[in-house]
Design brief:
Blueprint (H helix, E strand, L loop, with lengths): L20 H9 L4 H6 L2
Length: 41
């Protein structure tokens, strides 16, 4: 059996852009944008 019985916990963000500006934007700037909050369900 090669697959683990329990999925890995999400300890890292769901994106991996090698610490480019997009990482900073997705993790820091986007959550503070009121348009982003309005678009979330």
């Amino acid at each position: 059996m090669d697959t683990p019985l329990q999925p890995a916990l999400a300890l890292v963000p769901p994106f991996n852009n090698q610490f480019l500006f997009s990482d900073h934007y997705l993790a820091s700037l986007l959550p503070q944008d009121p348009h982003w909050d309005a678009a979330l369900p």
